[in-house]
Here is the input.
Amino acid sequence: MSALDPDALGARAESMIAALGSVSAEPGRLVRLYLSPEHRRAADLVAGWMRAAGLSVSEDALGTVRGRFGNASRRLLIGSHIDTVVDAGQFDGPLGVIAGILAAEHFASANTALPFGIDVLAFGDEEGTRFSATLASSLGCAGAFRPETLGLTDAKGISLADALRAYGKNPDDIAAAAYRRDEAAAYVEVHIEQGPVLESRNQPLGVVSAINGQTFLLLEIFGEAGHAGTVPMLLRRDALAGGAEAMLLAEQIARETRGEVVATVGRLNVEPGAANVIPGHVVLWLDMRSGSDAARSQFVERFKAGCRDIADRRHLGVTITTTREVPTTPCDAGLQQQLGAAVAGFESEPPRLGSGAGHDGQAMAKLCPIGMLFVRCRGGISHNPMEYASPRDMGLAVAALIRFIEKFQPG
Here is the structure.
């Protein structure tokens, strides 16, 4: 095996991250939406890097840029996304694309004969910021694109189908973007952790065990609005007080799982919403995530039962609606082991951890086994301009990916 220099690889990754981070729709903050002019500029920049790395380049009907090395029928797919949230950080998504390019270049520059080919994929729609759907481009590669997505519109009323046409694509060609199942050997993604676990453990890299499942509940509580000064406390039917108790219940149950489940209420509507009126109607949105579908299901049932008890005790009405259910996506055990061994060649044995955020791997798992490598990010901050991964950590991730490829055997 040839010597690898993580510092040199990290310096290259840092330069490429900065170049891609300068491609934005707005001065002073990073905004790069799917099928926008900025997406086009970013895709062209990535395509240029792929060609310079010795890869042949194509682009499918959903705008995924593909860099190809080798002609073997079995392909190792490596990728991530180049779209962003509004006022984004530079590392979420692009790091995985850049790591794939640098790793593929290692083999292309030496004209290495591998028993499989490599495709580096730069997806365009992971965040779902422009249209109210995520993973459109990776679902296309996985052969699981939902045709009804084409009718979704952005804030200006432009449909996804029309946006694709304006981007120079034909929606009728989307089916051709799919890989065959016998073609895709595995999908691997390098991504910043977007959380604080690796930093808390002082470890640069981690191997992802699963992309956590998600349950979203809409909780409505019905009380009775009344005068804030005249209704005695014991006679009130305060919907917000009941909602506050429900939020604390969710926190309590999640803490009792000792890290197996996380729960968040990030949005709350209170009516009538006047400072001198007892709230008569409250709506809460509860987001629950776990690497175990069973643990998440148990949490939901316990929470629902607790909310009914709260409502009965406070003489409130309550309805609980599941608005979204996303199952856990396990990472392949063999790929976890191989990624862990590759990291251990440079650092100590990496921890296994779940991903609380969604990734393109969720779509690609519908096609083939998936694996993910997490990279430490400062403060666990993501979706924020303060997002940061050090050149050294990024270089270690690229070096580990190269070592993984050297040992990989397609099934």
Remarks:
- The chain has a mean pLDDT of 96.
- Residues 293-314 form the longest helix (22 residues).
- The longest strand covers residues 261-271.
- The domain at 6-211+328-407 is CATH 3.40.630.10 (Aminopeptidase).
